[in-house]
């Protein structure tokens, strides 16, 4: 009997947005799928080798493979792949050279080979159609979701997180891998303008530098900046909830999960008005051009000094976040997989 298999290479990757997506969706689909994972030591280049050589041997002639984390085996045409963004093609300078070369080789061929492509945004869909000439009938946009534990935290939870990380002052928050596209040099330049006016505020960064990225582009942290490193998923809601605002001023995103999580936790949001982020936040954020330091600084000052603005953003963000759920993402994904299986004659 035909099966829908899941490419489980993501299970050996760090907990970033792509892995969260794969876990949330595959976990909700459960029994209709069979997860296929590489041996425990197969990470990095060995993981890619397994994906191209070992994984195809486990896919039957009538089976369908879903690859949820950007890459998949070129030899399997009966495949649906989720491509989250094309940053490695559009901005190879942000990545380790070998990683960028491999993705430049793999992604165009894979996109043309597979049966269907799921994208988390219209932005990524349009970039695939434009850059790789993929016909739009092959592309299906399905937004990501937000887990139920991302909700406004209570005062005790917020106090506990503040104590854990020594956050004694009001703070602005940035969540995500510390990588070039997160726009840290301009963010720090904007922050330096604000910290002189508001010396009792901190800028808190939660995240590590990913293994495939080049240096994030800043020589040092600015005054009043706290680097927390990777933060446990369980404490993120309280960290968002305790912030004066969250900043999502990336240069490039395929979706923008931290922006959605921040809104779900009631954090006022400052967000980029480019790439996929406007699709996620709608009118529930202060929108800025991420290349304009002055706009970022002005938005920071606005949320720090205007309580009515903060409350308005908080209310709009909570309402906007209710439009997204992992259950909805999983349901729509299963519909695509089932239809693909039927179309392939399974």
Describe the structure.
The chain is 41% helix and 14% strand. It is an alpha/beta fold and 346 residues long. It folds into two domains: 4-145 and 326-343, Rossmann fold (3-Layer(aba) Sandwich), CATH 3.40.50; 155-321, 3-Layer(aba) Sandwich (Rossmann fold). The radius of gyration is 21 Å and the shape is elongated.
Summary of the model, kept short:
With 346 residues, this protein is an alpha/beta fold. The chain contains 13 helices and twelve strands.
Task: Name the CATH superfamily assignment of the largest domain.
Answer: Glycogen Phosphorylase B
H and E string? EHEHEEHHEHEHEHEEHEHEHEHHH
Largest sheet: 6 strands, parallel
Taking Cα atoms only, what radius of gyration do you get, to the nearest Å? 21 Å
What is the global morphology?
elongated
Distance between the termini: 8 Å
Low-confidence stretches: none
- How many strands in all? 12
Number of domains: 2
Provide the helix percentage: 40-55%
Mean pLDDT score: 92
Query: Any idea what the CATH architecture of the largest domain is?
Result: 3-Layer(aba) Sandwich
| Proportion of residues in β-strands | 5-15%
User: How are strands sequenced across the largest beta sheet?
Assistant: 2-1-3-4-5-6
């Amino acid at each position: 009997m035909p099966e829908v298999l899941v490419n489980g290479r993501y299970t050996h990757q760090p907990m970033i947005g792509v892995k969260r997506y794969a876990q949330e969706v595959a976990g909700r689909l459960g029994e209709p799928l069979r997860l296929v994972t590489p041996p425990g030591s197969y990470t990095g280049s060995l993981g890619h080798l397994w994906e191209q050589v070992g994984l195809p041997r486990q896919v039957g002639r009538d089976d369908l493979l879903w690859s949820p984390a950007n890459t998949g085996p070129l030899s399997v045409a009966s495949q649906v792949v989720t491509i989250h963004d094309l940053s490695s093609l559009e901005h190879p300078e942000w990545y380790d050279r070998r990683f960028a070369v491999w993705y430049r080789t793999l992604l165009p061929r894979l996109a043309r080979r597979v049966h269907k492509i799921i994208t988390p945004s219209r932005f990524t869909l349009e970039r695939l159609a434009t850059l790789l000439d993929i016909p739009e009938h092959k592309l299906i946009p399905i937004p990501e979701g937000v887990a139920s534990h991302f909700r406004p935290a209570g005062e005790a939870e917020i106090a506990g997180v503040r104590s854990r990380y020594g956050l004694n002052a009001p703070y602005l928050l940035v969540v995500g891998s510390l990588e070039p596209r997160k726009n840290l040099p301009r963010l720090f330049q904007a922050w330096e303008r604000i910290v002189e006016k508001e010396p009792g505020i901190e800028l808190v960064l939660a995240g590590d530098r990913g293994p495939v990225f080049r240096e994030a582009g800043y020589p040092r942290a600015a005054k009043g900046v706290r680097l927390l490193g990777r933060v446990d998923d369980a404490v993120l809601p309280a960290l968002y909830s305790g912030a004066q605002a969250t900043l999502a001023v990336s240069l490039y995103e395929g979706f923008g999960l931290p922006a959605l999580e921040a809104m779900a936790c009631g954090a006022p949001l400052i967000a980029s008005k480019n790439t996929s982020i406007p699709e996620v936040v709608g009118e529930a954020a202060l929108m800025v051009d991420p290349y304009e330091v002055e706009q970022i600084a002005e938005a920071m000052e606005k949320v720090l000094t205007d309580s009515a603005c903060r409350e308005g953003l908080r209310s709009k963000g909570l309402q906007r976040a209710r439009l997204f759920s992992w259950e909805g993402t999983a349901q729509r994904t299963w519909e695509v997989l089932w239809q693909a299986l039927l179309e392939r004659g399974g």
